[in-house]
Design a protein that fits this description.
single chain; 5% strand; globular; Yip1_dom; transmembrane; Yip1 domain-containing protein
């Protein structure tokens, strides 16, 4: 295994294996969401729920993933008529896999408490500096950024592999379609959940 495989598993692994892993990732996202009281309001956006039910987690998560798959598939067919649905589904589902880690951090108490302690210190600056809490916050920010960059890389590389795009105009269309889909999902799902 080399760096290319890590950043573009779509070229190396069987599409059915990737789809299986993507479906497991979706199930895991729903189960972790139920455990943490969170859901995906779009790809790359995790929201909290006031009233946690299995449906309140599963429905918006499935809608957000499905809408991203649908929009990318339509765009893929426009850019390359040989684009396959399984490749686009793998792109979206595999790219969201590591975000489940971020979803699970909502249940780790010392991570949730660190920002509260730092804010409390700002109100009482004469108290000892909460160095450990600041380190936890910086570490979590770094881990979050790394996971997001990797996830976006998988998302882009998966679409590029599925559609064989090379022109910068196609890349701009991909980015615009992804952003618009993400925003529309967030707006629509925030009204209902």
């Amino acid at each position: 295994m080399n760096w290319k495989t890590i950043f573009n598993p779509f070229e190396r692994f069987d599409d059915k294996l990737l789809l299986g892993i993507g479906i497991l990732a979706t199930i895991l996202a729903i189960l972790v969401g139920y455990w943490t009281g969170t859901y995906f309001s779009s790809i790359y956006r995790i929201n909290s729920l006031d009233k946690v039910t299995f449906q309140a987690v599963a429905i918006p998560t499935l809608i957000s993933f499905s809408s991203a798959i649908a929009v990318l598939f339509i765009l893929g067919k426009i850019l390359n008529s040989k684009t396959r649905l399984i490749d686009i589904a793998n792109t979206v589902l595999i790219s969201q896999l590591l975000l489940v880690i971020l979803q699970a951090t909502d249940k780790i108490s010392f991570i949730k408490e660190a920002p509260k302690k730092v804010i409390a210190h700002q109100k009482h600056p004469s108290d000892p500096l909460p160095v450990l809490d600041i380190a936890i916050m910086l570490t979590m920010a770094s881990v979050t950024i790394i996971i997001l960059i990797y996830s976006i890389t998988l998302y882009y590389n998966g679409f590029k592999t599925a559609t064989n795009i090379k022109k910068w105009q196609h890349i701009v269309l991909f980015a615009a379609a992804s952003m618009i889909t993400t925003l529309i999902c967030q707006i629509l799902l925030s009204k209902y959940f």
